[in-house]
Design brief:
The protein is α/β, with parallel strands linked by helices. It folds into two domains: 15-153 and 161-252, Rossmann fold; 262-343 and 374-384 and 428-652, Orthogonal Bundle (ADP-ribosylglycohydrolase fold), CATH 1.10.4080. 36% of the residues lie in helices and 9% in strands. It is built from 27 helices and 15 strands. The chain has a six-stranded mixed beta sheet with strand order 2-1-3-7-10-11, sandwiched between helices. Strands 4-5-6 form a three-stranded antiparallel beta sheet. Strands 8-9 form a two-stranded antiparallel ribbon. Strand 4 (89-92) and strand 5 form a beta hairpin.
């Protein structure tokens, strides 16, 4: 197998687009069982190798013609384009036609009731693609009453005629054409139990081969079909390529190092980010230094802020007045090594991995990766999830509950649930897994990858920023805080000066980015400069878990100091949710100051720095390739948010109530066992000053271990629908594994490619309940 070199960068497509159609449920001619599965499986494998796939099934003529036309109109110069069809086809008067489900069997009006293949190819090639690939699994016999067909089939009565295959086609330059069998013949019918058509079966086995030229792949498929049928069926191939080494898949593009991976011979020891950085590939194209400096600055700045505040997380302002943080340190609340990060950066890495792997905004995949982090320690600096907010925990339990219901409804194998790629199927899954009124800072702490990826498309970047938070934090304030902060990061990457970012009229000057939903009053107040308080904490600035407080505090730190280091320290020394306040600050400040201006004395201690820098390159690379299409914003439906604008359930007099938690690790010094800590905001309720907070000891689970079964008895999100129910935060002890150095290092295949993805072990359900006072919580 060839190794891809940097010289191949000149032959890389801009994007990879595919239209996949399967029609088997014909109304007036013979039905076929395989096309539905053919289309689903081809769509899945194309998605896995980086194609943006449009999949359609059982289309009538008008709909089919319209979809083909709309697809070709999305093509831009230098895109790689693949068209796949499984169903009935007909060759008639020198042309080939794809038959829709409502085709009536009469060839007299075939040109007006079926889609002409040559027209599709002409429309594609008019867009000047990198390469056009046409694959037709439609050389099947069908009988049409009283029709004139190309050839008669022996044994068919005079009142019927039949088609023997498609007619030969001559490809235009830069085109590859493949039929399931030779022209003038029909494909061999498969047994009823077979899932796929014969040609497609072998295509599925070869098409994902990395670093293999498309012509070699199709020749291998051709040989495999001929061997299986003893040369009774030989696929037709015709190419007119103008380029060499045209790869459908490259090992670098597949990014297996972003899969959920375990060490060799282990079902418990997960590969951590610092190990992934040793095996990751890098984009072959150069990235503009100025943009890369800002993207890397934002990602590393977030991790630095997180690590800077981690060792004093939950410490009150009074403690930090007496013991101000002046430098990056380890130990403290979580017993981490200097430079290790917490849940803030871990979840941001999950989000970044989803954007880079899926090359698009796919909320379902984002939730899957958050679930991997929660269950398996994916993207954690310690190899385990040791700190998770109640809102996030509740949403992830709700997500898995919905997955289980979804699997039952659509008959999806459980082991495939985390790897769904059918866009049509995913639109049926409700990814908004949070109850309304959840406004913790967990939505904002992980935001950066979204505006960094989409900054070239401002409206999309802002809307996706809001929606990325909404899937786990359902309040309008969380949505708007993410939109506003995302807009600031977008403007930063577009070259805005600091005074422009801090302009009290920034929102009004960029109002087109936020349409059609305006900001709620709490976020609008911040946009108009409420954070510009010279007195800082004494003037009301708070580093709390409530997203409004968190946004205001991060912007105050950015406004009040002239460099990254001073601003990060100012954010941490506000106290309370120190790591998240500083992580939020770091996203914007890092993007503005750039990676090259971050404190060198801190950079040398950043955990998994090479991985973060490499992932930043992929964010820049894939973000540059991404282009919006007509479906880009359908999953977010900004208009649907307007119904929540007046459902504000956290009145001002309840925002400052603090939920309290006793730390689990004995490594915290100078803190009484009764010391309390600020947490994420809960929904408002008449407070009696107390609430129940659950502390869950960590139990290491295998990759086959499911999250606790969600039932009516233990489903916290059900109770949370009542505004009187407080939120809490689940905290997992790290006392037994406080540093990344204590984990064993082995090698293991990724879960995505492992066939044993079922469940056999459940995590421990032992909880201890502590009665605490107050109400402010982190995500």
């Amino acid at each position: 197998m060839e190794t891809k070199t940097t010289t191949d960068a000149l032959r890389e497509p801009r994007r990879k687009l595919a239209l996949v159609i399967g029609i088997g449920d014909y109304e007036k001619i013979r039905k076929i069982k395989n096309p539905r599965n053919d289309a689903m499986d081809i769509s899945s494998v194309l998605t896995s190798i980086g194609f943006s796939v449009t999949i359609e099934r059982n289309l009538a003529y008008q709909n089919m013609a319209s979809i083909c036309k709309n697809f070709t109109q999305q093509i831009e110069a230098e895109d790689m384009v693949l068209f796949y069809f499984s169903g009935h086809g007909a060759g008639w008067e020198g042309q080939n036609y794809l038959l829709p489900k409502d085709f009536d069997g009469s060839n007299k009006k075939l040109n007006k009731s079926a889609v002409r293949v040559q027209s599709i190819l002409e429309d594609i090639n008019d867009r000047k693609p990198f390469v056009s690939i046409l694959i037709l699994e439609c050389s099947r016999e069908y009988r049409a009453p009283n029709g004139r067909m190309n050839k008669k089939v022996h044994g068919v009565g005079e009142s019927y005629s039949a088609l023997l295959g498609l007619q030969q086609m001559t490809p235009q330059p830069g085109t590859v054409i493949a039929f399931a069998c030779a022209s003038g013949t029909i494909a061999i019918e498969r047994e009823e139990k077979e899932r796929n058509s014969l040609f497609t079966k072998h295509l599925l086995q070869h098409i994902t081969t990395p670093n293999e030229d498309i012509q070699i792949i199709l020749c291998n498929v051709q040989k495999a079909v001929a061997d299986e049928t003893h040369s009774k069926q030989i696929p037709f191939l015709s190419t007119a390529l103008l380029k060499k080494k045209i790869y459908l898949s490259s090992q670098v593009e597949e990014k297996p190092w972003l899969d959920l991976q375990y060490h060799q011979n282990s079902t418990e020891s997960i590969k951590q980010p610092h190990e992934l950085g040793e095996i990751m590939g890098y984009p072959t194209k150069d990235i503009k230094d100025g943009i890369l400096n800002r993207i890397q600055g934002s990602m590393i700045g977030m991790a630095l802020g997180d690590a800077l505040g981690a060792h004093v997380e939950f410490r009150p302002r009074e403690f930090l007045l007496q013991n101000p943080v002046a430098d990056l340190e380890g130990g403290g609340t979580w017993g981490l090594e200097k430079g290790q990060f917490t849940d803030d950066t871990s979840m941001a890495l999950c989000l970044a991995a989803s954007l880079v792997c899926r090359r698009d905004f796919v909320p379902y995949d984002q939730l899957v990766r958050y679930k991997w982090w929660y269950k398996h320690g994916y993207m954690s600096s310690t190899g385990r999830c040791f700190d998770i907010g109640a809102a996030t925990s509740d949403s992830l339990h709700e997500f898995e509950h919905r997955q289980q219901c979804f699997a039952t409804t659509y008959k999806i194998p459980i082991e495939k649930l985390d790897f769904l790629s059918d866009a049509g199927l995913l639109t049926k899954f409700n990814v908004k897994c949070s109850s309304s009124g959840v406004a913790g800072n967990g939505a904002l702490m992980r935001l950066a990858p979204v505006p960094l990826f989409f900054y070239r498309h401002s409206v999309h970047a802002v809307e996706y920023s809001g929606f990325s938070g909404m899937i786990t934090h359902g309040d309008q304030k969380a949505y708007d805080a993410c939109r506003y902060y995302g807009a600031l990061i977008v403007a930063t990457l577009q070259g805005a000066r600091k005074e422009e970012l801090l302009d009290n009229e920034f929102y009004e000057k960029h109002s087109s980015w936020f349409k059609p939903v305006p900001l709620v009053s709490e976020i609008m107040k911040i946009a108009h400069g409420s954070y510009k308080q010279k007195g800082g904490y004494d003037a009301g600035i708070r580093g709390k878990g409530y997203i409004v407080n968190a946004l205001e505090a991060a912007l105050w730190a950015f406004w009040s100091e002239e460099n990254f280091e001073k601003g990060a320290l100012a954010a941490v020394n506000l106290g309370d949710d120190t790591d998240t306040t500083a992580a939020i600050y770091g996203q914007l400040a890092g993007a503005y100051y750039g990676y090259g201006n971050l404190p060198e004395k801190w950079l040398q201690h950043v955990y998994a720095k090479n991985f973060l820098l490499g992932l930043s390159k992929w964010i820049a690379y894939e973000g540059e390739i991404w282009q919006p299409n007509k479906r880009s914003l359908l999953t977010t439906s900004p208009a649907s948010m307007s119904s929540q604008q007046n459902t504000v359930v956290i009145p001002f007099d309840h925002q400052e109530l603090d939920a309290k938690k006793t730390p689990l690790t004995p490594k915290i010094s100078n803190v009484s066992s009764q010391q309390t800590f600020t947490r994420e905001t809960r929904r408002a309720r008449p407070s009696d000053g107390t609430e129940q907070h659950t502390v869950t000891p960590f139990t290491l689970t295998s990759r086959r271990a499911p999250m606790s079964q969600v039932t009516e008895k233990n489903r916290p999100y059900e109770n949370a629908k009542n505004d009187s129910q407080p939120q809490s935060r689940t905290t997992i002890s790290t006392a037994t594994n406080s540093t990344f150095g204590s984990n064993s290092l082995f090698t293991r295949q990724s879960v995505a490619k492992n066939n044993n993805q079922g469940s056999s072990t459940k995590p421990s359900s032992k909880n201890t309940t502590k009665k605490n006072t107050g109400s402010q919580k982190k995500p």
